[in-house]
Amino acid sequence: MTRNNVLMKSLRLSIVLVMAMVFGILMAVFKGDGSGIRMAIGNSSAPWMILPFVAAAISTRHRVIQSALVGLGASLIGLFGFYFANIFVLDIGPHPELSPYPWVADFLATLRSGKIYFILACLSGPIFGILGGFLHQKRSNMILVFTATLFVLEPCFGLIYVRFFSGFTYSFTYYVDYPMVWLVEAVFGVILFILIIVRFQPTKRS
């Protein structure tokens, strides 16, 4: 591998990770500090699963370890950006027990509130990173199929979770409170499926 190739790969990876940070910040800003449709959209999981998938597809060839690390890095950096932005977005309140410096205390408080998502990212990031790198290497339209599937299945899994596991700690009632958000997400996934079928259907020979 030439020096130019190494530099180009490093540059591409750096851009991808910076974009992951920007993605997290924008998600936090869009979600805002309050309830409503913005909160429901901001709490959707599909974009966070697509993030490591796309990051690995853009910046790696299919090397399992490399794809996994890129997916993990994109997920964690995106979450870092999300919770860093929450310092300025959310009304967190004082936390002097965490740090004598208010902004440090705010940041530590936001990180602590999202620790479950960092743990989950350590699992989902590598998995979706490997999948993204593999499908990109195969030049497969399964990348689009994967994206459409996430948008269709997330509302279904959310409703199942609320129906059967609402007594647990994380009860995502916004799936019920804002059904139009999840209906639009599912419809978007179905439309994407239709476009994939139309675009990639085999042509008939005359």
Determine Rg (CA atoms, Å): 19 Å
General form: globular
Topology, number of strands: 0
- Roughly what fraction of the amino acids lie in strands? under 5%
Total DSSP helices? 9
Would you tell me the overall average pLDDT?
76
SSE sequence, one letter per element: HHHHHHHHH
Number of domains: 2
Major sheet: none
CA distance, first residue to last residue: 46 Å
What is the SS-derived class?
A: mainly alpha
Q: Share of helix among residues?
A: over 70%
List low-confidence stretches: 202-206
InterPro entries: DUF6518
Pfam family, one: DUF6518
Transmembrane segments: 12-30, 36-57, 69-90, 116-135, 142-162, 182-200
Keywords: Membrane, Transmembrane, Transmembrane helix
What does this structure look like?
The chain crosses the membrane at residues 12-30, 36-57, 69-90, 116-135, 142-162, 182-200. InterPro entries: DUF6518. The chain has 206 residues and is mainly alpha-helical. It has two domains: 1-139; 141-200. Helices cover 78% and strands 0% of the residues. Helix 1 (3-31) runs parallel beside helix 4 (64-89), helix 3 crosses helix 6 (115-137) and helix 4 (64-89) crosses helix 5 (102-113).
